[in-house]
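Example S7 (structure tokens).
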């Protein structure tokens, strides 16, 4: 008679992947997600058109008698393009929540703070570099107009020409990070965009109405100097010493404070809330 023997249970085998999760790989993943969105390039393209168009319009209307620094024509359009930067930061986050991709992202990267940091770095770097190229492009476009009026750009003076462009590009990165923060905090595309537009655009306009109000309301006008857009303007165009407004150092700290507060709020929500 043959004896029956129980089959030997097979041992589970674990295949060790040669790839390890690290921050550089997460950055690459976030870059792929941002770069493959058509809205990213549409936003940057519209930003470029607005910047060059508004700069050209301002340069064309200025006369030599005005003694208007032409570099202001280049950086002034951020009052409008800041909305595109903020909205781009917002939809880069809320788009993942609306499609459910955020679940895959957080499954692949369990450390949620790394997801937030990677997305913030990618968006900030993208907006800074893109804005830098756009502002320099706008400066080149208006240079013939400026020279014809005797108001040419002085590229040899760092503080007069280069510094405002660098600061305006950094401000665009800050606006994008504010949008990223609202995206993680609110998760709703409509709500996050509304909050971003309100902070960057609506509140500065509303606060201007209190400049002509009585002394009892002056604290609102003074507090509005610390809004992101106002701080950016004080950083790009420093007020004369002794004049009313924020010093460049305070403006830099204010912009940094908005970024830190937004990122901390986004991190607190992301780590405690289910995807």
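Recovered sequence:
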């Amino acid at each position: 008679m043959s004896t029956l023997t129980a089959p030997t249970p097979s041992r589970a085998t674990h295949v060790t992947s040669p790839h390890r999760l690290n921050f550089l790989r997460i950055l690459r993943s976030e870059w792929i997600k941002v770069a493959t969105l058509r809205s990213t390039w549409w936003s940057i393209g519209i930003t470029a058109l607005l910047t060059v168009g508004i700069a050209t319009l301002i340069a064309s209307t200025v006369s030599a008698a005005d003694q208007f620094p032409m570099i202001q024509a280049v950086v002034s359009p951020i009052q409008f393009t800041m909305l595109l930067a903020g909205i781009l930061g917002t939809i880069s986050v809320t788009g993942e929540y609306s499609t459910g991709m955020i679940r895959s992202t957080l499954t692949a990267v369990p450390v949620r703070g790394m997801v937030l940091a990677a997305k913030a770095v990618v968006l900030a770097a993208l907006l800074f570099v893109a804005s830098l190229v756009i502002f320099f492009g706008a400066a080149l476009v208006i240079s013939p107009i400026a020279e014809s009026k005797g108001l040419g750009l002085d590229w040899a003076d760092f503080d007069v020409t280069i510094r405002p462009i660098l600061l305006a590009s950094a401000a665009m990165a800050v606006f994008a990070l504010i949008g990223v923060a609202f995206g993680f905090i609110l998760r709703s595309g409509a709500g996050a965009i509304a909050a971003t537009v309100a902070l960057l655009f609506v509140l500065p306009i509303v606060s201007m109405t209190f400049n002509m109000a009585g002394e009892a309301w002056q604290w609102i006008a003074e507090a509005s100097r610390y809004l992101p857009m106002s701080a950016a303007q004080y950083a790009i165009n420093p007020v004369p010493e002794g004049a009313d407004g924020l010093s460049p150092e305070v403006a830099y700290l204010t912009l940094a404070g908005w970024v830190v507060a937004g990122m901390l709020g986004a991190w607190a929500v992301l780590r405690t809330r289910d995807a």
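Notes on this example. The radius of gyration is 24 Å.
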